Amino acid sequence: MILLLLLLVGFSWSDAPLKSVIQDVEQTTSFRFLYRDALVAPVRVTLSTTEERLLADLETHLKTKGIGMQVDVASKQIILYAASVPGRSGAPVQGTVLDDVTGSRLPYATVMWLTEGQWAGVVTDDQGRFTFPYPKNALQQTILVRYVGYEPRSVSLSAEAASINLAVRLIPETLTGSEIVIERRSIHSSADSLWITMSSSGGTTGFSEPGALRALQPLASVAAGGAISGGMFIRGSKPDGFQILLDGVPVYNQSHLFGLFDPFNQDALNALGFYYGITPATYAGLPGGTLSYTTKTASQILTKGSFGLSNSALRGTMEVPILTGRASLLISGRKSYLNSINWFGNESLIRWGLDVDRATSEPETSPTVDSRTVFPNGSDARFHDIHLKAYYEEREGAHWSASFYYGGDKTWQNATRLFRRPGTLQFESEEVETRNAWGSLVGSLQRHWRVSPTQRMNALVAISKYDASYSKDDFLYVRYNRTNDRFIPSLNLFSQRNSLLEMRANVQSDWFPAPSVVISSGISVASIGIDYEERSNQRPVYSTTTKSVQTDVFTQAVMQKNEWVHVTAGLRMHYFSLGNEIRLSPRIHVMALPGKRVRFGGGYSVNHQFLHSVSLKQQSSADIWISSLSDQPPSTSTHLTGGIYTWLGYGVSAQVEAYRKVAKDARYHEVNPSLLVTREIALDAPWFYQNTIESSGIETQVSGSHSAMDWMISYTNSATAMRNPSLNNGEAFAADWDRTHSGSAHVSLKPISRMSILAGIHTASGSPNTATEFGSEDGGRLDSYLRVDAGLRGTVPVGHTLVTGTISIFNLLDRKNVWYRSPVLVSNPSARPPTLEFENLDVYDLGRLMSFDLSVRF
In the 3-class helix/strand/coil scheme, how is 514-558 assigned residue by residue? Predict the structure, then answer.
């Protein structure tokens, strides 16, 4: 009725919200508006006009409210902007990509423009912001914005409107018609759109519950891994060299339950950036790369939510507007119930993760009888995580965000183990326990604002608190007996306790002195306190407390003015108070022929690491962190990389990259390399620090995105070796995670609308045979790894609600993939007298495992 009256008598509003005015105009005309919700939310309109005078009268009226209005009659687009923020002729185009329904910012969206017949482009940052140069002497510039799960949108921008803080609104859910394919030739970003598609849906196959970390597995730069992840091995680096950030703040544990689940509820995340090559100088940048998570900005318009159920956990997320168009609150949580319901192999997962009676090959001494010496009893496993994010946007575009995360694990397994006392012939039994727990709290407050048409700022204050503990009554030790040149295994207690408290403040400025140049500078200060305590067979008690301050000053320039080459160059200077260390991290990345179908890239970087995790070989325990000391210098890594990148057409792209990485002074716990000790050494602390890790490789990756299929194939040939003057006579030896060949193939088929069939293959050559470290003569490598995963995902709309179900099968063929080889205590009851002895056995990865996930979004 209202629309009919508008058509009959013109347009008339009395103290109406500007948002309602926009909706009325869009419904009755062909014009579409681009705006920020925070700009229009407080504005009310009183106006009567005719259809012929609508745009002129509306522009005049909004000018009195401090809102400018740019009208493009040809494209039927109207841009609203804050008139109080003056533009500057020749300034670069700056803008934000938003969800048209909720007003949420869309990070890592693709923004493209046509220059001299070639598509160029950028990717928005973690706040959904973008910047690009307006072509000289151009009267009009058309840009195209794309984001996974949204309709692409083109915007025609005049020269007069170029300096406006543009807001591009995307409509959720892509059209079901033919997909628009653009050759993204000059965009080189680690946030690859196909990978974001995989991660947003929870990865490809294997485990149903969504998880971005597992979605990394198809990438050629990530080492092949099994069900349990002791961390991410990126281009040969140790897992502690892989940095995870949540809203710009380091998180010190990378997974729930031994790597089976991500540390974060995927429903609380919007998008993420992955840097495995040359990390920008704006990040601290560890040797193994950086994964930057962004907590979702909740809807500022509508109340939204989702609930999910998997075979292991319950989860829920709510998005609540606080001030319409200006402020919102996100609340998200996840709670496991593995300890309550034993289905889909939950109890076996706990035992397997805590190394209690893992599946092994048959012992040669007694292959036909039960040779087990450990018998699992009760178990308990639980994990949880909570996300909160409050968001507030000022009218001129500045915005505040406060985020909070708390997550943790608690796992326990009780078992009965056989033993025999010296001088007796009968077996006896004793109760043994394995416990593992961690808790992580991260809180931050940030403000982003525009200082001028050519400068924007952001500031952050944050706190990160982490606690972890691990204990195992029957931990495996191996002692080298110099008298008879033999390695002697034994079982005894091992325990660790760790706490870390970090307080951090960052300030960063982005300056645009020229249309194609961005200079970022800033400073980061962190105060870090760490407590560590250990009890082992080799050290009755060891404890240390460290307090340090790390200050980083950085600057970086991104220059894309030359059509033949784009350059990103930066320098980060670190000061670390323990030892008064001053280190420099230069970083440079060059992309040649950025606008061509085939382009070439390369880079060089130096990264320094001041905090280290001392993981335990073949054990799944919480991350344990220590600090560099005055007499134990920080780790240093140099990284050289180069590649060829090409767009093959028809939705297919390919790349080949080569790299060389050398890390010095990496940490390695003494219970791990004791197997390789060849001369007497005395360590002040229970870890080696003079380790050098050398890694090199060639990575090939081909991916395609089509209307009914997405796919990715990768292959890597690499080598990673370690060296320590105190180990193995100073000779190099293969790292535990070294695999010469590895590859994967993943495909997502869409036979009908809203249904996907998922399949994945992981294969790799064998890892180093650790049994050689125990004097075995078989040498060489373990058997190769081959795993096939499969899944089925379907979505059904029920009114305004979407119901999505996923069924996945890990290791579909139930293949016995060798994880590692190790001494295992076995019994031989057929011997006279019965014996207990250690035998080198293959320990297997998880067998076939089915899982499900059901989610409801409204």
Answer: ECCEEEEEEEEEEEEEEEEEEECCCCCCEEEEEEEEEEEEEEEEE
